[in-house]
Amino acid sequence: MIITPEYIKTLKPYVPGKSIEEIQKEFGLEEIHKIASNENPLGPSPKAIEAMKKVHGEVNRYPDPGALELRKKISAKSGVEVSNIAVGSGSEGIMANILRCFLCDGDEMITSEATFIGFQVLARGRANKCHYVPMPRDTYKFDADGILAKVNERTKIIYICNPNNPTGTILNKGEFDKFYKGVPENVLIIMDEAYFEYACGCAEYPDSMDYRYDNVITLRTFSKIYGIAGARIGYGFAHADIVSTIMKVKLPFEPNSLAQAGAIGALDDDEFLEKSRALNAGGYEYFRKELNDLHKEGKIVFVPSYANFVLLKLESEEKVNFINSSLLKEGVIIRPLKPFGLADCIRVTMGLRKENEAFIKSFKKYI
Ligand SMILES: Cc1ncc(COP(=O)(O)O)c(C=O)c1O
């Protein structure tokens, strides 16, 4: 008999939000508003699509395993050397490789509770211990001091998600500076900046590119603002030794050729980037205004967000379930956050105007 390790047996797989097709079928609805997965509601970057179309006739060939053209493009855009740029099948793919490369038996990890579930799934898929530091419920922010207090001689990796999914909150510049100074040099900090492009206009947001420390790896993605989540491609900035180690263990031909081409196209699409940012900012303001009264009345807590989604705390888990099922019947898909450890909260992605309006209408009706 093949023995499965206990930590794999007890692993709960990542459960994504409900799909449009599932809800259409279940409730016999035509129009569905999926504002559950922090995807770009405008669709993919047109330049990414154009670039993918150009190479699709060559998919009989293997891609460049070093993704050199893409890394050069990222280098030209960011001013970072190619040797400091890693790529992978999504930023989650890179994260998986980081854990694979650097965790030895007995090493430990630290992060916050109520953070990106993808990291939690990866961490639970390892035999290594991971500490989840409680998240203060008055701020819904990472408790940086609490994380530092957990550091011990076995700590190898600290995972920070900035802005944090699902709370939308950030560690600001001052908080990150103070935190970083308390982390020993032999501990690798993963700075997950999947929502960087939404937050980077804010003065208080610490662009981790300004902190090119040897023990920090910054992860970014083409899945969010660039709109090519299905292509699975992300990148990271780190010390050249860390990058070469990660590139050594990745699957030889990840990211795939369509993804590499799409990412190169997306990086040229400033117009799409601006349009996406503007749509998001408008959607956020609309949510903030529309939900202000409910917030003031204490019926919900609206947590200010730096990303393309907002966290809403409701009265209870029962209320979340009721709201979720009521909205689904009206074709509005949002994300209940029990799997993230926030059973009394939902996460709503800023969508197209009509999607946002559909959410607000249904939410106000049922809350
Ligand atoms: C914080 C965070 N990191 C990473 C990812 C996954 O990114 P990718 O699609 O590049 O693997 C997500 C997706 O939801 C996310 O929210």
The number of helical runs is: 14
Main β-sheet: number of strands, strand sense, barrel status? 7 strands, mixed
Going by helix content, strand content and strand pairing, the class is alpha/beta
Shape: globular
Any idea what the radius of gyration is? 20 Å
- Please report the distance between the alpha carbons of the first and last residues: 52 Å
N-to-C order of helices and strands? HHEHHEHEHEHEHEHEEHHHEEHEEEH
Give the total of beta strands.
Answer: 13
CATH C-level of the largest domain: Alpha Beta
> Helical content, roughly?
40-55%
Poorly predicted regions: none
Percentage of residues in strands: 5-15%
Write the CATH architecture name of the largest domain: 3-Layer(aba) Sandwich
Give the strand order of the largest sheet, numbering strands 1, 2, ... along the chain: 2-8-7-6-5-3-4
Number of domains: 2
Bound molecules: pyridoxal-5'-phosphate
> Would you tell me which CATH topology of the largest domain applies?
Aspartate Aminotransferase, domain 2
